[in-house]
Amino acid sequence: MMKLPLIVHVIHRLDVGGLENGLVNLINGMPDGRYRHAIVCLEDFTDFRGRIKKNDVDVFALHKREGYDFQLYLRLFRLLRQLKPDIVHTRNLAALEAQFVAAAAGIKRRVHGEHGRDMSDLEGGNFKYNMLRRAIYPFVDRFITVSKDLQTWLINRLKVSPARITQIYNGVDSKRFSAALSQTVEHSPEGFFSENVFVIGSVGRMEAVKDYPTLICAFIRLLESIPDAEKYMRLIIVGDGSSRPKCLEMVCQSGLDKLIWMPGERSDIPDLMRKMDLFVLPSLGEGISNTILEAMSCGLPVVATRVGGNVELVDEAQSGALVEPGDEIALKEAILKYYVQPELLKEHGEFARIKIETCFSMSRMIESYMNVYDRLTGSVNN
After folding, report:
1. Are the CB atoms for 343 and 379 separated by under 8 Å?
2. How does residue 227 score in pLDDT terms, banded at 50, 70 and 90?
3. Does residue 298 carry a pLDDT above 90?
4. DSSP code, position 28
5. pLDDT tens digits, residue range 29-38?
6. Measured by CB atoms within 10 angstroms of the end CB, which terminus of the chain is less buried, N or C?
7. What's the pLDDT score for residue 118?
8. Which of 361, 344, 365 is nearest to 353 (CA)?
């Protein structure tokens, strides 16, 4: 019996994050009998690996050292020669150099995904990075971008032919993330989700690019502008990362620890989202935000920054509002509009849910990826 074609996905690290979440969803959702999968982590993996439901997916860690690690390329070369994949699929700048290694190892079909840019290069104009991209891009057979913004960037800035690019939006599990009746949230602060409170929520990696300090500042301004607001407003930021200690310190200094809850990473995100009235993402840069998609799927209106793929997800005055990044006053005003006009919460939330069902289904995402792989391997639909 012939083995199914093998796809080796090369990423920097398998940990909590939008890129990693999308990869796991793709592997879990792909029908049996089509492709085998393996994940190569240039650095390492965490217990996030446990989210992979299929038991035949090998995950390898190459333990990249800090700085330039030539031995890493030798380890990757040997592993690819051992695995003999039909397709190597790298993702983002951190894994791009693996395209060189894959070509040297004789892997004939190579895919690269652009999921978003680094904090140090939000506009994608870094000379050094783009020189590297221009050197490696000729080795790539097919590019996949998660947003039209990234697709346009590849065409205009990097001069990639549109014929070599496929744009595929992330999908969301609309059954798991739904506007069902909210359940009791375990291990939440007493009285935090009491009746008649307006809960502003956010979920994401607490890294600098997400700019959560601006959201905290906007919330503080909101409390200052509304009489007795402390009785009715709450803010929850779910996630972990390097900026969380700073945010916790800000909350402590403000004396608002009973109104702002930062529980760290949680596994009950759908239940937490159902407790929210409004979802807010203040990031400085985005590819396509999985958490925005999940919030929309839960029937939440979204206030987000006008960056990257956010403008492709949030329809202003229909499913949410867009503000400029780093502008805490504009962010406060956008949130305030929903507080003083609660009828917009239901109206915009329903529009958001319909958009998810129409454009961002998990099945649609998986089918689009399989079409790319099928064309490269000649399996079907060629």
Report:
1. no
2. confident
3. yes
4. H
5. 999 999 999 9
6. N
7. 86
8. 361
E-state strands within 72-158: 87-91, 110-114, 142-145
The strand pairing partners of 198, in sequence order, are: 233
8 A C-beta contact, residue 282 and residue 214: yes
- Residue with tokens 């003083």, as numbered in its chain: 340
* Domains of the chain, earliest start first: 6-171+361-377 (3.40.50.2000), 198-359 (3.40.50.2000)
Distances (CA, A) of 283 to 274, 287, 292, 353, 364: 22, 11, 11, 22, 26
Q: Coil, strand, or helix at residue 291? A: helix
What length is written for the chain?
A: 382
Mean pLDDT of the chain: 95
Tokens of 152: 């346009």
Distance (Å) of CA 303 to CA 116, 141, 202, 289: 20, 37, 10, 13
User: Residue 380's pLDDT is what?
Assistant: 58
Q: Which two tokens stand for residue 290?
A: 């999985």
What would the pLDDT profile of 61-95 be if each residue is shown by its tens digit?
999 998 888 899 999 999 999 999 999 999 999 99
- Whether 87 contacts 5, CB under 8 Å: yes
Give me the torsion for CA of 272, 207, 189, 330, rounded to 10°: -80
Nearest in space to 137 (alpha carbons), one of 108, 164, 177: 164
Sheet bearing 87-91, strands edge to edge: 58-61, 36-41, 6-11, 87-91, 110-114, 142-145, 165-167
Structure tokens at 169: 């939006």
pLDDT at 1 over 60: no
pTM of structure: 0.93
* pLDDT tens track for 153-209: 999 999 999 999 999 999 999 999 998 876 788 889 988 998 889 999 999 999 999
HSE on the CB side for 304, CA within 13 Å?
Answer: 34
Reference 346, options 304, 381, 309, 318; nearest CA is: 318
pLDDT value, residue 381: 46
Q: What is the largest CA-CA distance in the chain?
A: 72
Q: What distance in Å separates the CA atoms of residue 296 and residue 169, rounded to the nearest whole number? A: 14
Query: How far apart are alpha carbons 46 and 100 in whole angstroms?
Result: 26
